[in-house]
Specification:
Blueprint lengths: L10 H17 L4 H12 L4 E3 H8 L3 H13 L4 E4 L6 E4 L4 H27 L4 H35 L3
Antiparallel strand pairs: 1-3, 2-3
Helix pairs in contact: 1-2, 2-4, 3-4, 5-6
């Protein structure tokens, strides 16, 4: 029995959850293979699996695992680490993965804001296109502030609910 099945858990139920949750992530825009790998990590008791364990559980190739993990690491949904005493890598999903992924989106939003500011200047704020860009910029500036405030409320809520992180 692999770690993913866990003691006292039905491997079929785990598999159903992984595929169902992955399908929801795909519907929300995540690529299929990263969604499946992320769901498998999330469903594992330790939150840590090796490439071999992911491949076995999901019936996918090492190359598919590698590509999925590369993407998930880029968007800060998983991290890579060395297995102690081994050259093998293992992949970890953290309990605060949603927080990290959303917080790291702030850097992307800031780059979009910079590009939009340049666009407003370049196209002219008084043109229809410039006006549209200015409204889009205002939306992202608003969202940036809301996300920061929401993340702070989340930290307080998480600490109350689950104890200090």
């Amino acid at each position: 029995m692999t770690e993913t099945a866990g003691v006292g858990r039905d491997p079929e139920a785990v598999s159903r959850f992984v595929e169902h949750f992955a399908a929801q992530l795909v519907e929300a825009g995540l690529q299929r293979m990263p969604a499946r790998v992320f769901a498998a990590l999330l469903a594992s008791d330790s939150g840590i699996l090796t490439s071999a364990e992911l491949g076995e559980q999901l019936q996918i190739s090492p190359a598919a695992v590698s590509g999925a993990v590369r993407y998930l690491a880029q968007v800060h949904m998983v991290s890579r680490e060395r297995e102690p005493g081994s050259r093998r890598e293992r992949y970890r999903v953290h309990s605060n993965q949603w927080y990290e992924a959303l917080t790291n989106r702030n850097a992307i939003i800031k780059r979009w804001e910079d590009a939009l500011r340049e666009g407003v200047v370049g196209l002219g704020a008084d043109t229809p296109a410039g006006s549209r860009l200015a409204e889009t910029l205002a939306f992202f500036e608003f969202m940036e502030g809301e996300i920061e405030a929401m993340m702070e409320r989340w930290r307080v809520h998480r600490d109350k609910t689950f104890g200090q992180a």
